[in-house]
Design goal:
single chain, about 375 residues, alpha+beta, Beta-Lactamase, Heat Shock Protein 90, 3 domains, 5-stranded antiparallel β-sheet, 5-stranded mixed β-sheet, 9 helices, 12 strands
């Protein structure tokens, strides 16, 4: 934080180096200046009365905090959080004033970029999700290249594992930053449809980040514990949608099914979409029920059954051609893994996902 002391006649007395760095003046130059020389003309019009009340010592306004544009030495205006308060003597008269300054340029820039992104995010979500998948495949290649590049410099396997875990950790952290940006935008979004789209994007990116978290926590960097992954994914989704655990229960049975990183992310996204869809639509009102996920080996491949005993999908609904972002993503990701997905409407809703064995092997 930049900090200065100001005398009642508006003269700057002392300043720390951070304050000097923010506004671009030396501490010697600041000692000859007044408070008003640091505030743009426009902001003086907006905030003169309140700042003047604090400096005058009126009890009506003992301190003042506001976001405003501060003028640097090069006449550039920068956004700062400003806090002005009085230090008083024994009889309550102001002796001097403390001004605290925080540079908000980076945060304002991020907010502006998020606002621009939000304008087109809903229309481009399918393309962005596909881009993230492509970026992740590219990152996997980068990971492999890093391993090969470091091979001549590393003497033991343990050193290579440390490097790989660090990469997955950083990927997870970078995805978490994106999630945080989306969360901030949700807080500023008034339109419910836009807010819901942003929340859905958060859950998709969380499912990808969780894969990398499981990988850097695992002793086997080639695969993850998929049952543990699903339990964490479901806990996150139930928390995101505010699900009452006494009303909707979950059952997961995919023991001894290690999933490679090549298939973990698309498979995790499919599970995220189908479970989210069930939480949104299968149990309207106060209806209770259960969602189960079962997985087993069949030959060299895997078969997953994602089932709920909710209201079900109408027989009249052609789900394979339904204009739904959730189901479009499921179909797209299933084709990417060269798998098949079927819908059974016998009791509630059951999706049966089959993945051939060769699609579960990591690329060499």
């Amino acid at each position: 934080m930049g900090i200065v002391d100001i005398f009642p006649e508006n003269k700057i007395s002392r300043s720390n180096r951070k304050f000097s760095g923010i506004v671009g003046y030396t501490q010697r130059e600041l000692s000859t200046m007044t408070l008003w020389e640091l505030i743009t003309a426009e902001e003086q019009l907006n905030h003169f009365d309140n700042l003047a009340q604090v400096i005058s010592g009126l009890l009506l306004l003992p301190n003042y905090s506001v976001e405003m544009r501060v003028q640097k030495k090069n006449h550039q205006g920068i956004w700062c959080q400003v806090f002005l308060s009085a230090v008083k003597d024994e009889i309550g008269e102001p002796k001097y004033f403390i001004l605290v300054l925080e540079d908000m340029t980076a945060r304002k820039r991020a907010e502006e970029e998020l606002a621009l992104l939000n304008a087109s995010l809903e229309e481009r979500i399918i393309g962005r999700t596909a881009d993230l998948l492509c970026a992740n495949e590219s990152l996997e290649l980068d990971v492999d290249n890093r391993i090969k590049a470091e091979a001549s410099l590393k003497d033991t396997l343990s050193e290579k594992e440390v490097l790989l875990k660090e990469i997955h950790h950083r990927v997870k952290n970078n995805l978490q930053i994106i999630i945080s940006f989306l969360y901030l935008q949700v807080q500023k979004t008034i339109d419910p449809a836009s807010a819901n789209a942003l929340n859905d994007s958060q859950s998709r990116i969380k499912s990808m980040a969780l894969v990398h978290q499981k990988l850097y926590q695992s002793g086997d960097l080639a695969s993850i514990d998929f049952e543990g992954y699903l339990n964490n994914l479901i806990s996150n989704l139930m928390m995101s949608y505010g699900v009452d655990k006494s009303r909707i229960t979950f059952s997961v049975d995919v023991k001894n099914l290690p999933i490679s990183i090549h298939s973990a992310i698309p498979l995790g996204l499919i599970m995220n979409e189908l479970v989210s869809n069930a939480l949104k639509y299968a149990f309207p009102g106060d209806r209770s029920g259960e969602i189960t996920i079962q997985g087993q080996k069949e030959g060299d491949g895997l078969v997953f059954r994602i089932r709920d005993n909710g209201v079900g999908i109408s027989e009249k609904t052609d789900w394979e051609h339904l204009d739904s972002l959730c189901l479009n993503l499921v179909r797209m990701l299933t084709r990417q893994m060269k798998g098949t997905i079927l819908l059974s409407r016998t009791t509630g809703t059951e999706f049966i996902l089959s993945i051939p064995g060769e699609e579960r092997r990591p690329h060499s």
